Amino acid sequence: MNQELVTKKFPVTDRVREAMAVSLRGAEELIPAEDWEQKLARSEATGVPLRIKLGLDPTAPDIHIGHTVVLNKMRQLQDLGHQVIFLIGDFTSMIGDPSGRNTTRPPLTAEQIKRNAETYRAQADKILDPARTELRYNSEWSDPLGARGMIQLAAKYTVARMMERNDFHERFKAGTPISIHEFLYPLMQGYDSVALRSDLELGGTDQKFNLLMGRHLQAEYGQEPQCILTMPLLEGLDGIEKMSKSKNNYIGVTEDANTMFAKVMSISDTLMWRWYTLLSFRSAAEIARLKSETEGGRNPRDAKVMLAKEITARFHDAAAAEAAEQDFVNRSKGGVPDDIPELSLAGAPLGIAQLLKQAGLAPSTSEANRLIEGGGVRVDSATVSDKALKLAAGTYVVQVGKRKFARVTLG
């Protein structure tokens, strides 16, 4: 880029301030914020879109809606007119990302990577506008780099700086092995930013070190350094742990519409607003107005239905979302009597087995666990399969078998 444009100070207009607000909505950290503001101002003045990069390693065939938090942010910035780049890390997957690991991550085979990568684009297309998305694979520039290029790249960062990274530092201190190839991962991810001439890179909070590496390497290669935007990790259905398949507190983007709708309806009223911020495409003003109406007496269920329909429609379509709502209503009416016991319990977050015992729906926690294993426990019409489930503060219709019900308000 013309050095004069890089150093020139551009005016910050109302449109730039709006773009900054969109960028910061739900974000954890924007580094450096003043540089991103100037990039936005320059883009508006010159009419040249900014290049916004998100890289995902295809380490598993499917993604859940927790993974879509960064994709949602990409879509918001795409709608502002900028060029988004969806980067599939087919090369870096063969190394294995050490972020947050206390052991060496086993690298995937080329066959596993190819199989997983084939599903990623289709799932990303449910959020990003495919016609305005640049799809790239980092093997394009990583493979041609070769041994000589890899050595030259490795010379641009020191071991001391690499060991400042928390996971490496802790593993070294504990005497846990660190393989040399793991040092290559952040270098290769950073080199992606050089190859793509990225203006902004997005990632989860656990990716901060890798994202900063991109800034460092761009400066080393004489480019204007990218800004980085980290997004928080989404809490799962329990409202406590981050969304994870292993914790069974997730919504998969390929789940059927009825299940997806019912799972959104199962979250607490408190968690609902967090999900609105991170998952909804509604404007911040719309969400604030809806929250104000709810605090003023409107039933929070109305807002939850709107969120459930929006998320379900995104991964299916509007008709499927409408049908899922009707299915949810029918099951609620058909399975729950009009007059059921109502009670209040304290201790949120409360384990499901303990809740069943305290609500008088099971004589003991061991019996409650047996009922869960048998598929006989439902919360807000959704079958509970995780005995470790903890319910956050909120009101739930809890069902055991066909005849036992209670409307439990958990405080």
UniProtKB/TrEMBL annotation:
<dbReference type="InterPro" id="IPR014729">
    <property type="entry name" value="Rossmann-like_a/b/a_fold"/>
</dbReference>
<dbReference type="InterPro" id="IPR036986">
    <property type="entry name" value="S4_RNA-bd_sf"/>
</dbReference>
<dbReference type="Pfam" id="PF01479">
    <property type="entry name" value="S4"/>
</dbReference>
<keyword id="KW-0030">Aminoacyl-tRNA synthetase</keyword>
<dbReference type="GO" id="GO:0005829">
    <property type="term" value="C:cytosol"/>
</dbReference>
<protein>
    <recommendedName>
        <fullName>Tyrosine--tRNA ligase</fullName>
        <ecNumber>6.1.1.1</ecNumber>
    </recommendedName>
</protein>
<dbReference type="GO" id="GO:0004831">
    <property type="term" value="F:tyrosine-tRNA ligase activity"/>
</dbReference>
<keyword id="KW-0648">Protein biosynthesis</keyword>
<dbReference type="InterPro" id="IPR002305">
    <property type="entry name" value="aa-tRNA-synth_Ic"/>
</dbReference>
<feature type="short sequence motif" description="'HIGH' region">
    <location>
        <begin position="58"/>
        <end position="67"/>
    </location>
</feature>
<dbReference type="Pfam" id="PF00579">
    <property type="entry name" value="tRNA-synt_1b"/>
</dbReference>
<dbReference type="GO" id="GO:0006437">
    <property type="term" value="P:tyrosyl-tRNA aminoacylation"/>
</dbReference>
<dbReference type="InterPro" id="IPR024088">
    <property type="entry name" value="Tyr-tRNA-ligase_bac-type"/>
</dbReference>
<dbReference type="GO" id="GO:0003723">
    <property type="term" value="F:RNA binding"/>
</dbReference>
<dbReference type="InterPro" id="IPR024108">
    <property type="entry name" value="Tyr-tRNA-ligase_bac_2"/>
</dbReference>
<dbReference type="InterPro" id="IPR001412">
    <property type="entry name" value="aa-tRNA-synth_I_CS"/>
</dbReference>
<dbReference type="GO" id="GO:0005524">
    <property type="term" value="F:ATP binding"/>
</dbReference>
<keyword id="KW-0963">Cytoplasm</keyword>
<feature type="domain" description="RNA-binding S4">
    <location>
        <begin position="350"/>
        <end position="411"/>
    </location>
</feature>
<feature type="short sequence motif" description="'KMSKS' region">
    <location>
        <begin position="242"/>
        <end position="246"/>
    </location>
</feature>
<keyword id="KW-0547">Nucleotide-binding</keyword>
<keyword id="KW-0694">RNA-binding</keyword>
<dbReference type="InterPro" id="IPR002942">
    <property type="entry name" value="S4_RNA-bd"/>
</dbReference>
<feature type="binding site">
    <location>
        <position position="245"/>
    </location>
    <ligand>
        <name>ATP</name>
    </ligand>
</feature>
<keyword id="KW-0067">ATP-binding</keyword>
<comment type="similarity">
    <text>Belongs to the class-I aminoacyl-tRNA synthetase family. TyrS type 2 subfamily.</text>
</comment>
<dbReference type="InterPro" id="IPR002307">
    <property type="entry name" value="Tyr-tRNA-ligase"/>
</dbReference>
<keyword id="KW-0436">Ligase</keyword>
<comment type="function">
    <text>Catalyzes the attachment of tyrosine to tRNA(Tyr) in a two-step reaction: tyrosine is first activated by ATP to form Tyr-AMP and then transferred to the acceptor end of tRNA(Tyr).</text>
</comment>
<comment type="subunit">
    <text>Homodimer.</text>
</comment>
